[in-house]
């Protein structure tokens, strides 16, 4: 499982050019589910993401978590994070989870986030989406479950 976490002052995802879902201060999480990802891996990723201290305290130190600041989440499925570009000019996505399993894991990830964060918005698995965000800092972290 791979996640790109972007600290934002605001963000939105528009699904199929119709429904816009917005958050204020918080994180945009681009989530790629890999073949073989388990519930245990997913829960470990959620815990790590929510416990990260990326927000500044009163002294300007990155010392506060998403929960500490009452932040919001916008989770967007992005299988392209699993791209393998080592050979040729066309990326391979063989490491990405099967669509059925990846969708199940993506939805479980969102539900796990909701156990700790009040506002969790999300895109739609497999849908055409447009993501808008104001990256605050900018501050972007890449997490790979293989490295946790």
Q: Which helices and strands appear, and what pairs or packs with what?
A:
Elements: E1 2-15, E2 19-23, E3 26-32, H1 39-51, E4 53-56, E5 62-65, E6 72-77, H2 99-114, E7 120-122, E8 129-144
Parallel strand pairs: 3-6, 6-7
Antiparallel strand pairs: 1-2, 1-3, 1-8, 4-5
Written account of the structure:
This protein has 148 residues and is α/β, with parallel strands linked by helices. The protein has a single domain (2-147), classed as 3-Layer(bba) Sandwich (D-tyrosyl-trna(Tyr) Deacylase, Chain: A). The chain has helices at residues 39-51, 99-114; strands at 2-15, 19-23, 26-32, 53-56, 62-65, 72-77, 120-122, 129-144. Strands 1, 2, 3, 6, 7 and 8 form a six-stranded mixed beta sheet that branches. A two-stranded antiparallel ribbon has the order 4-5. Helix 1 (39-51) crosses helix 2. The termini are close together. The model has no long low-confidence stretch (mean pLDDT 96).
Q: Quick summary of this structure?
A:
With 148 residues, the chain is of the alpha/beta class. It is built from two helices and eight strands.
